[in-house]
Structure formats: structure tokens, C-alpha cells
Specification:
The structure is a homodimer. The first copy, chain A, is α/β, with parallel strands linked by helices. Chain A is 31% helix and 20% strand. Chain A is elongated.
């Protein structure tokens, strides 16, 4: 049995760019290592989830790891919370949250508390406490944004928002949408009432009022989602698994399925990330683990920025950083792909399919010779992201026989 | 967001023809416009419904439009009725019908009333009336054939045929197959009894009897099917949609999902159709609509005729008619494919996959360079017809993001 190294270049897929003479960032990049791995191995095209789906990184990573998002994706709440670096466990109920301003009668004056930029960390700290055996965790994000996580027994996400979704309306009481959610709604309303009091008396808000600024005196919550209780990855696939990622949401998903997350010094999740350090850490990690997923975010960042030159350059630096990757091919199956396309011309995710390559000693070589969106259509595979784990298992001699 | 123009060349796919030196009709056709759209865009192969399915035009058009026929196809009744140009609404129950001859005891003498060719229009007119709040509509087709549509509240298709399916047997009473269908069976039997009387007394039949011909004195019905209540296309996809088609069944399906049908002078659904007029009408329609599906039937007609030269020539004339199609590529996604293959050597539908092309400004270009059954295998897509709408939505920047 071999080990598996799944490299996810976030938002890898592209469309033709005028700045690159009509080529995609990947086609334009000097990428001798990715090309060699393709030429001497197998290529193909992969649709995130299925053809035409325009996926987020959350749904597409779940799918890549073998967890069908149609079954397990429970809305943005838990994944936004993971994105802020919060721990989210199966069964937790999580919400997107706004620090907002309300008047004395609870009428929302500003859903964004004057787009508050400072002090929300401190406010969030004061909002992490327990009520009736349920733990509440709040973390601040960019500006007025944040997330709330509830952890305890018998929770449900079948509850309404406290957020009225527009100014001029009163903050809503949270209501249960079925009998089983009554406890969750009750304890949450109790929590919000205590939270309200704490926010009003908080030094950050007293100071803001002194300065004539809108106080962040209400935490509006919306989009309740219960984190799925997923069969741990090592149980599902019989592999000791780890993740390397510079972005909290991906780390969060990998933790949710029980993977160990490996911290790499200099891995920032940005264009300036230390790719070399990530690959070094990956090789070391593979000595101790059977499976490693490594996400590199830089390609997606450049795509969102609409900067094809930066995307091309990121790919070149990633390629250079994997120059000695062949030394693990003897006992490892390497797979390189993305989670979705982020075309620079679109500055957002698209539903275009992605190139994928597989390599290991002894693998069939096919007609895909370059690693890009065009050459890989000549390869062996025309698959959906949900097929990848099964292919990796069989290439690594780990697949159980179906039948006799 | 871009508009979408889906061109369906009916029965497009072919197999090698001796008359064309072993080429398919598409390979043999001079088709510079289809080839350019392929070369400068994306190609692929599409299976109607899924690999190996040998579909009708009804099931394949439902699938192409994003309505899974496995869920929504309710048998031939409603689609045959649409094929005769009858209006069929969701909830209507429709039947295939035969004008037939019975004796005084109701024993079927001839299921086809001597293959009656004249007067069935008049007979049908006399059979369109209401009973107990249920409207009945009959339309005559070719020879003894026709269709019956029932419209009213609380109808069900869980009923038996009145057609005994062979001569020498008595006309069956219609029976309910479950409790909920009792009303339908009752009102239908009442209707058939009145219809019987009207047919016997009808001048057309009195005349036939004078001439010693078999009277068409019984309407035998079979294959009850309830038209599915489909979510309107504009609700499902958020697009104002229209159809151009020379064949009533396709128009009927498009109407069933709430599309507007555009009439084009000279569009006959035959080999002599005015393709140029259809494309002109299409460009005008696209100024007012977000989505247009245009069916061209000529290719299928030639396939059924087993005439590869006529099929090739039809493709050549269709290609010539789209010579200035590129002017809409800036704000429109164009897709050309078929609904199924109708190989001339088979003179019927086959389950062979079909070429498909996508083009719009900014799209990836792939290795498919010619629009035919062989070159398009080098393209990006290896899909089923049910994937087409999702791909069109994402290429036109209309796809909602799944996840974050």
C-alpha cells in the first residue's frame, strides 16, 4: 500500500486572458515539474461536484475528500465559523453574526454598527460563556462580522434568526421551527439577553458612545447550521491523515473529519506564502501519515484579484517549490488539482472543469502531456470531484475489491 | 449575465454511410460556421439522458431543458397530444386514441375503422365537450389516430384503457386502479357513452355506411398519462424563455414549462423549412428574451428517411443560415447539439452520443476543432443531456455559488 499526497491549488482553473496572449494562467506558466508528472503519469478533467456546478471552497473540499456535500453541507454558518479559525465539532450549531447598533427598544439602527473596525475582538471575548450547560463561542471577523458557535447536547439548527435583516425593525426573538429545537431556541434567547447586557456595559462601547460613535450593542445572528457529524476520515478510508493549509476554513473542514493539521512557518494562505516550506513540511508529514491534503491558496487569491500575471507567477513558484517531488513517487500517489476554477476574467469562482494529474511508480501513461485545462482533456479521466478519493485508493493499492 | 441560445438539430447524430464514403452526415457536410464555433470554443460529447439511452424527442428535450425525464416523463399520452398541437397543461390527463369500428354489442370489428383517412377532423370536433365540470378535447391525427385530453380538478391517470387492444373483444369499461381515480373513471365512462352516441349519429359515419365503409363509431383510448406539473422554466432558472420549433410536440413541451413560443413564417419542421428565417427570428427573439431554444427537425426527418445525402444537405443549409451568428457571441452563450442520434442506416433513433459545442466571448478553447461525432470526442465535455443547463448557466454567469 502506498501513501497519498493530494495537492489542491485553490481556484486553479482559469479562462483565456488577454494579458497572457489568450492563455490561461496555467498554460502561460513555466511548470516543468507539473508537466513532467502529467506526461509520465495520467491526466484528466474534473468537475467540482458535477458538470456546471459553481462551488465554494467548502463544498468542493468536502467533495474532494469523499464527503458528498449534497448530503453533508449544512449551510454557511459552520463553515464561516471555521473560516474564522474557530473549532467546530460535529453537532455544534453555528451562525454568521453581525455586531450591530440597536436603540433602547431593541430596534435596529445600524446592522453594521457604523462598520466598526476596532475593539470587536474584545467584545467577542466577553461573549464566550456557558448557559444551562451549553457553551457559546464568539469570534470577530472583518469589520462588523463574526460568528457564533453553540456546543452542547441536543442542539438543533431548526431555529429562526435574531437578525431582522433590515434596519428599523426590532431584533427578533429566536423561535424553534419544530418541537426538538425548543431547547436550542430557549437557551439561545437566554444567552442573547445576557450578551446584550454585557455589550451595553462593555468598555469598548462606553468609549464609542463617548466619541459619538454607534455602539456595537447587539449581536445579530443568522443562518443557523449544524455542523455535520461526519464519519472520521481514518475510519472511512483506513488512513492516518493530515492537512497543511494556510486558510482556516480548509483546516477546519480537515479537523472536522478528524485529520491532524500541520502548521507550517511562513504558510500564509496568501501570494507571499512560503511554498518551499510547505513542500518540505509535506514530505516530512508523509513519513508519519498515510494521507496528506495540502491546500495552496495563492492561485485563488490572484484569480479573485483578477491578476493573471500574479496567478501565472504563483503557479511558477509553486512548480519550482516541488522540483524534487519525484523522490516520493516510489511509495506515494501524487495528485494535483484544484477545488474549483477562479478565472481572472471573472474575479470569482466559475463552474469550469479543472485539470487533474495522478502519478506514482508503475502508473499508466496517457495522452495528457501538459498540466493545463486543454491538454488534460486528452487524459484518462473525465470525472467529478467525488470520484477522486476512490481513484486515489485504487492507485495506492488500498481499494477493497467489490465482488470476488 | 449573458443570454443563452440553445440550438437543437433534431436527430443530429449519425453513423457511417456508404453513400458518404463511410462518413456521418455531419462529417460529410460543408459546415464552416459550426466548425469555427467549435474550434474557437469548446466541444464535447453528450449522451441523451445517460450513456446508451435510446431516447425519444420528448424525453431528450425534457432532459436538455433540465427536467429529469425519470422524474417527469409520464408516458406517451400527454406528449402525443402535444404532438398533435393540442394544449396540454400540468394536471391534464391525456390518451392516445383510435377511431375504430364496433358492432351493436360493442365488440370491436376494426381497431382502425378501415384506416379511415377523411372526416376524422369533423368527428373530433363533435367529441370536444364538457361532462360534470371536466373538459374533454379530441384532435385527429394521421389516419385513424388521435388524442384525447381531459382537463379538470382531481383527475388521475391510474385508470385502465377502453381499448381492448385487439378486434373481436368488447370495448372495455374504464376502471379506476385506486380510490382517488374513481371520479376520473366515472366521468370518462359517462363521456365515452355520450361520445359513442354522437359518433353513431354523425354525418361522416352515416355517409361512410351509405358508401359501404366501416364507420368510425367508437373512440378507443389507451395509455392514460397525467401531464406533469413542472416548475416553470423562468422560476427554475430565472430567465425569460422562448422557443422556436416547427414541430408541435417540442412547442408543447416548451409551453408546458411556461416558455413563449415564437411562430416563424416558413418554419415547417420538414426538410424544406426556411432555416434563414428561423435564425433571423432567433436573433430578434434574443433581444427580448434571456433564453431561446430552437429546434430544427430536418436532420431527424432525413435520418428517418434513411437518406444521408438529404441529411448532409440539410446540415449544409442550416450551417449557411447561421453565417452571421458570431455577432451575438459578445453577450450570448451559444450551444449547438441534438436531442438524440437518428442514423440514416437505422432509420430510427439510436442511443449513440452526440457532438455538442459551446461558444461565447472569453470561453476556453479546447482540442475539438470540427463539429462532428469524432472530433468533438477531443473536447472538454463528456456529459449527459441533464448537465447541459448547468453548464449553460455557469458559462453565462448565471450560476448561483454552491457554498462559499
Amino acid at each position: 500500500m502506498k501513501k497519498i499526497f493530494l495537492i489542491v491549488l485553490d481556484g486553479l482553473g482559469d479562462r483565456p486572458n488577454d494579458e497572457l496572449k489568450g492563455r490561461t494562467a496555467l498554460q502561460a506558466a513555466y511548470r516543468p515539474n507539473m508537466n513532467r508528472l502529467t506526461r509520465e503519469g495520467q491526466g484528466g478533467m474534473m468537475h467540482p461536484v458535477s458538470p456546471g456546478y459553481r462551488t465554494g471552497s467548502d463544498t468542493s473540499h468536502l467533495s474532494l475528500l469523499g464527503y458528498d456535500p449534497e448530503k453533508f453541507y449544512t449551510g454557511r454558518g459552520p463553515f464561516e465559523a471555521m473560516g474564522l479559525g474557530m473549532t467546530v465539532l460535529g453537532g455544534d450549531v453555528a451562525f454568521r453574526a453581525n455586531f450591530s447598533t440597536v436603540d433602547q427598544d431593541g430596534v435596529v439602527l445600524d446592522r453594521r454598527a457604523g462598520r466598526i473596525t476596532e475593539g470587536t475582538d474584545k467584545l467577542a471575548q466577553s461573549l464566550s460563556f456557558s448557559v444551562d450547560g451549553v457553551e457559546f463561542f464568539v469570534k470577530a471577523g472583518v469589520e462588523h462580522r463574526g460568528a457564533l458557535v453553540m456546543r452542547g447536547k441536543g442542539l438543533s439548527d431548526l431555529i429562526t434568526d435574531s437578525d431582522p435583516h433590515e434596519a428599523g425593525q426590532k431584533v427578533h426573538e429566536v423561535k424553534a421551527l419544530d418541537e426538538k429545537a425548543k431547547f436550542t431556541a430557549e437557551v439561545l434567547n437566554k444567552y442573547l439577553s445576557i450578551a446584550r447586557k454585557r455589550l451595553r456595559e462593555h468598555e469598548v462601547n462606553l468609549q464609542r458612545e463617548k466619541e459619538g460613535k454607534a455602539p456595537a450593542n447587539e449581536l445579530l445572528i443568522r443562518g443557523a447550521g449544524q455542523a455535520p457529524s461526519l464519519t472520521p476520515f481514518h475510519e472511512l478510508f483506513g488512513m492516518k491523515a493530515a492537512s497543511i493549509s494556510g486558510i482556516p476554513m480548509i483546516t477546519g473542514i480537515c479537523r472536522l473529519v478528524g485529520m491532524e493539521s500541520i502548521n507550517v512557518e511562513g504558510a500564509t494562505g496568501r501570494l507571499d506564502s512560503n511554498f518551499r516550506a510547505k513542500f518540505e513540511a509535506a514530505y516530512k508529514t508523509l513519513e508519519k501519515f498515510d494521507f496528506l491534503i495540502m491546500n495552496i491558496k495563492a492561485t485563488d487569491v490572484a484569480g479573485h484579484d483578477g491578476d493573471p500575471v500574479a496567478k501565472r507567477d504563483a503557479i511558477q513558484r509553486i512548480d519550482a517549490a516541488m522540483k524534487d517531488i519525484d523522490h516520493i513517487l516510489g511509495d506515494t500517489v501524487i495528485c494535483i488539482t484544484g477545488d474549483h476554477s477562479t478565472p481572472c476574467t471573472m474575479m470569482d469562482h466559475s463552474g469550469d472543469p479543472l485539470p487533474i494529474l495522478f502519478n506514482t511508480h508503475g502508473i499508466r501513461k496517457d495522452n495528457a502531456v501538459l498540466f493545463d485545462e486543454i491538454s488534460c482533456t486528452k487524459g484518462t479521466y473525465h470525472i467529478n470531484s467525488g470520484d477522486v478519493m476512490k481513484i486515489l485508493l485504487q492507485l495506492s493499492d488500498r481499494a477493497e475489491k467489490y465482488g470476488a
